[in-house]
């Protein structure tokens, strides 16, 4: 008898569970929450992306990931949305001072940007391409040292990008180097574009080295 009571209790629990789950099933078009503005800053690979608040959760539009190199595919027949991480490669090297020179007090702050080469004739003329294609890294040459290594992960291919649907191409990159250091209480700044076009379709780009100048002459 006791076993039957336990069994009946289990059956009742299952029935109640099914009822509760069924009552909570959402239908297409049901309102599941309010979209609210949020002051939370959301980043993908270090780059800010628009985000919203729904029911206390921070959400991002999947379609916006296209602008960050992700391949977003929609299958209308299956009602399915796939997000595929982009293939990446690496640009790496060393940034240093002329031989015999070392970083002053406070070190040298360096930002290196890898920009899609908008002068490449194989790339469609797209407004804002450089801003969209930027990948960056920041490094510091420590006080008393003469160089520092860097590495930047970059995309090997762009698909279904922000400015042109169904576009696909393999980009070439140009590096932009910006650096600053202290002269007393004054912050000095300089920068330049690299003189090499980097074609990542031929493999990793290593030993892409640059020399920076902090002389006051």
Q: Can you tell me about this structure?
A:
12% of the residues lie in helices and 42% in strands. By secondary structure, the chain is mostly beta strands. It has a domain at 88-211. The strands form six sheets. Strands 9, 10, 14, 15 and 16 form a five-stranded antiparallel sheet that branches. The longest helix is centred in the first third of the chain and has 22 residues, at 2-23. It is elongated.
Task: Provide a compact summary of the structure.
With 217 residues, this protein is mainly β. It is 12% helix and 42% strand. The chain is built from two helices and 17 strands.
Radius of gyration: 26 Å
Low-confidence stretches: 1-22, 125-132, 160-164
Order of helices and strands: HEEEEEEEEEHEEEEEEEE
Proportion in β-strands: 35-45%
Distance between the termini: 99 Å
Report the count of strand segments. 17
Task: State mean pLDDT (0 to 100 scale).
Answer: 77
Query: What about the largest sheet?
Result: 5 strands, antiparallel
Give the helices and strands, then pairings.
Blueprint: H1 2-23, E1 35-36, E2 42-44, E3 47-49, E4 52-54, E5 57-59, E6 71-75, E7 80-84, E8 88-96, E9 108-116, H2 129-133, E10 135-141, E11 147-155, E12 158-161, E13 164-169, E14 172-183, E15 186-193, E16 198-199, E17 210-211
């Amino acid at each position: 008898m006791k076993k039957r009571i336990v069994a009946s209790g289990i059956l009742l629990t299952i029935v109640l569970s099914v009822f509760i789950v069924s009552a909570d099933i959402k239908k297409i078009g049901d309102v599941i929450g309010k979209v609210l503005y949020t002051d939370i800053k959301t980043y993908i690979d270090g780059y800010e992306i628009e985000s919203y608040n729904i029911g206390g959760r921070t959400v991002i539009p999947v379609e916006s990931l296209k602008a960050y190199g992700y391949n977003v595919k929609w299958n209308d027949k299956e009602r399915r949305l796939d997000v595929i991480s982009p293939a990446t490669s690496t640009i790496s090297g060393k940034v240093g001072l002329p031989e015999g020179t070392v970083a002053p007090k406070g070190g040298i702050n360096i930002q290196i940007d890898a920009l899609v080469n908008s002068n490449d004739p194989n790339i469609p003329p797209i407004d804002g391409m450089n801003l969209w294609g930027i990948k960056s890294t920041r490094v510091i040459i420590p006080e008393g040292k003469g160089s520092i290594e860097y590495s930047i992960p970059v995309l090997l291919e762009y698909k279904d990008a922000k400015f042109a649907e169904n576009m696909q191409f393999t980009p070439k990159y140009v590096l932009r180097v910006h650096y600053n250091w202290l002269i007393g209480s004054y912050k000095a700044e300089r920068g330049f574009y690299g003189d090499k076009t980097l074609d990542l379709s031929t493999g990793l780009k290593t030993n892409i080295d640059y020399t920076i100048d902090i002389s006051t002459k």
